[in-house]
Amino acid sequence: MSSSIPIPNDFNKMLYEDISVYDPEVNELIEKETWRQFSGLELIASENLTSLAVMQANGSILTNKYSEGLPGARYYGGNEHIDVLENLTRERALKAFNLDPKVWGVNVQPYSGSTANFAAFTALIQPQDRIMGLGLPDGGHLTHGYYTAKKKITASSIYFQSFPYRVDPATGLIDYEQLATNANLFKPRLVVCGGSAYPRDWEYERLRKIADGQGAYLMSDMAHISGLVAAAEQNSPFEYCDVVTTTTHKTLRGPRAGLIFFRKDKDDLESRVNAAVFPACQGGPHNNTIAGICVALKQAAEPAFKDYAKQVRANAAAMANVLFKHGYRLQTDGTANHLILWDLRPIGLTGSKIEKICDAVHITLNKNAVAGDTSALVPGGVRIGSSALTSRSMFEKDVEQVAEFLHRVVQISLQAQKEAGSKKLKDFVDAFEGTGESAKLVKELKEDVKNFCIKFPLPSVVDSSTIKQFD
Ligand code: PLP
């Protein structure tokens, strides 16, 4: 045992100071954000609340280490423990998705979902090759080839030729027939499935046939649903896809990062994906994050996680039922996963207006395009997710109350719209921030939301009485 070494009293003293002492400014922001998360409702479908153990790994001393390369083949020394960690993470990733290590491999180094997707494209196709992904306004993600009439928006449309597929505006469901027809004309090298705002499951067998018809690769970006896939609450993309990417911080409930799974038995994908991640697209892996992923994957393989994922779906369905009961329209008439796309157009509201009132009452969600929207600038709906609420240990009866809060948001919005005297967003905000009836209702709802939320524990905070209160 070594005896305690005195803390130096020189230029290195700051290396030992607690953040609350050394940087109260940043510390207060962390405390405020903790209070915001504790006292508000988190309905953003791409977010979740990770565990204490994941945060401990993520905030660990592993952040100090460089480890370019792969386990056993590094460009830096001192990686004996990092090698074990990365191998363990790879093992756990395959196990969490029930994959045979002889058939599937995984790269656990991507910094995020976007970089995982770009690295996967880099591995699979050449610059300016053709890709087809679900269009952004139809529920796809930016990184699946998004562009507008005026601009190529993401690297996926700057470096590749992209043509989106769409949902049927009448049903909100993916129009696989139109996709097949357009694929025949466009002849993609890569078909991408997966989305950010699609409330239904994916027909991977059908997508495989479409890709095969063109000799194209099929890649799934299961970022949103990977926790549900791990728990067998959604179809598995692994049976039909060549490559599967995911973020690790959505339904999977880990730290912010990405993973790329690849078939080992096809076209040398293993070395192509690994080389695409490093050195093509990234430098040194974030080993602290990999440790967080590793812990999250252990959790995702637990029976308790299966219960969690089941409850995520049950909670989304329970919220949908309450919204239906109030006569609202939901895209695809409901949900099969963790998210709901709420079409506000029939009640004469926009996603932006609901988002504004929600923000004012501590409910966090986001405006979202719904099928058939004519203006990308004025989305006609909002997206609601149940993952974070379920991590706060809410069950059906609790989230039904959340849906009732959302119903109150609509009523306040209609009142504010009346008081505004115009359809302009600014007049609307002025109305509910003013002194009229809508402002009074906002204050009441904000208080009710807070009193409701603080009854539920916040993941990672063992003693909620230590949470500092603001506002
Ligand atoms: N892929 C999908 C389907 C997503 O929804 C997202 C983010 O929301 C990403 C990729 C990007 O992930 P990140 O923000 O980690 O880059």
From TrEMBL:
Which CDD domains does the protein's record reference? SHMT
Return the PROSITE patterns for the record: SHMT
Pathway where this protein functions: One-carbon metabolism; tetrahydrofolate interconversion
**Entry EC no(s):** 2.1.2.1
Q: Which reaction does it catalyse?
A: (6R)-5,10-methylene-5,6,7,8-tetrahydrofolate + glycine + H2O = (6S)-5,6,7,8-tetrahydrofolate + L-serine
Tell me where in this chain the PTM N6-(pyridoxal phosphate)lysine is found.
250
Which cofactors does this gene product need?
Answer: pyridoxal 5'-phosphate
Has UniProt tagged this entry with the keyword Secreted?
A: no
A single GO BP: glycine biosynthetic process from serine
Swiss-Prot/TrEMBL keywords: One-carbon metabolism, Pyridoxal phosphate, Transferase
User: Where is it found, in Gene Ontology cellular component terms?
Assistant: mitochondrion
Q: Name one GO molecular function term.
A: glycine hydroxymethyltransferase activity
One Pfam family it belongs to: SHMT
The keyword Transmembrane helix belongs to this UniProt entry's keyword annotation: no
What is the enzyme's class at the highest EC level? transferase
Q: Where is the Serine hydroxymethyltransferase-like domain?
A: 20-405
PANTHER family xrefs: SERINE HYDROXYMETHYLTRANSFERASE (PTHR11680), SERINE HYDROXYMETHYLTRANSFERASE 1 (PTHR11680:SF35)
Q: Can you tell me which family this protein belongs to?
A: Belongs to the SHMT family.
The entry's function note states: Interconversion of serine and glycine.
The entry's protein name is Serine hydroxymethyltransferase
Name the source organism: Cutaneotrichosporon cavernicola
Q: Which gene encodes it?
A: SHM1
